[in-house]
Design goal:
Length: 290
């Protein structure tokens, strides 16, 4: 949950999650809809789906026994080198360096690297990881990056590794790492088809091969539907693109994939944040009561 998301945002989600899924078995036995509903609003839904798949593998194929090595952790869905290294060093005491964004920045300054690549950073730091409590080493490095060797104002004078830091010794801390070249994020203008009948909305559940798969939402189209009444637009940004969506009141749902969902039952399905924004427009326009 904490990947790409701040602690304060995560806490209530984490508490609700543990209450509903107190162990790997309860998560594995839940439905994907249940899992997505609890994740609703946290974004990056692939994390939830992977956690669910992982729980099913651990509970149904491994007798609820978690892996004990870095390599075995890596085989689980959603577990990359960072997560596998963090868990296997902290929980299993294996000497693998966990490289997150903070650690990359610290390494860039320690070794004067313009662009700190994950694999290279792991290779450079591996000789220093202790056999005893390797997890503490990883946590200390991450913490150093988060609190002392920060992005814009590192407090080098209080840094415990000052003497070993090549950038500090040569007085070039600001030069490392090199700033990333920002890539412009594309913006799209689209329409959400809003078809309302007998206090029910025409919605569809996103399929396996779509972004936000498993979540319900309005049907989005590129062209303005003929004769539709346009409502105030909403904006929403994802990591790789942003979009402005204009809700369009459509008279019919014919030929559009989906099904009617009663407004009173919207709480039972998982909707994306964008779809919640559209629902708010409908509420403000007094078309529905939430
Ligand atoms: Fe970072 Fe400064 Fe410490 Fe070097 S001396 S690791 S730049 S805080």
């Amino acid at each position: 949950m904490l990947q790409q998301t701040q602690v304060a945002t995560v806490i209530p989600y984490f508490e609700r999650w543990l209450e509903r899924f107190p162990n790997v078995q309860t998560l594995a036995d839940a439905s994907q809809d249940d899992v997505l509903k609890l994740w609703e609003g946290l974004g990056y839904y692939r994390r939830a789906r992977n956690l669910y798949k992982t729980a099913q593998i651990v509970a149904h194929k491994k007798g609820s026994i978690f892996p004990e090595t870095y390599e075995d952790w890596l085989e689980l869905p959603g577990v990359g080198p960072y997560t596998a290294a963090a868990i296997s060093s902290i929980v299993n005491g294996e000497g693998v360096v966990a490289v997150d964004g903070n650690v990359k920045r610290v390494a860039a300054r320690l070794f004067k690297l313009d662009v700190p690549e994950e694999k290279h950073v792991r290779e450079l730091l591996t000789p220093f990881i202790p056999k005893k409590n390797p997890g503490d080493f990883n946590e200390a490095l991450m913490e150093l990056g988060a609190t002392v060797c920060t992005k814009s104002s590192p407090t080098c004078l209080f840094c415990p590794v000052q003497e070993n830091c090549q950038a500090f010794v040569s007085g070039e801390v600001e030069a490392y790492p090199k700033p990333k070249v920002k890539v412009a994020r594309p913006h799209y203008e689209r329409y959400a088809l809003v078809h309302l009948k007998d206090d029910a909305l025409w919605l569809r559940q996103r399929s396996e091969d779509e972004m936000l798969n498993g979540l319900w939402g309005f049907v989005l189209v590129d062209e303005q539907p003929k004769g539709a009444k346009l409502l105030p637009p909403v904006k929403h940004a994802y990591t790789h693109f942003s979009q402005t969506i204009t809700p369009a009141l459509a008279k019919t749902s014919s030929k559009i994939e989906g099904s009617y969902v009663k407004v009173s039952e919207l709480d039972d399905i998982a909707l994306s944040t964008l779809d919640h924004k559209i629902l708010n427009v409908l509420k403000n326009q007094k078309l529905i009561t939430l």
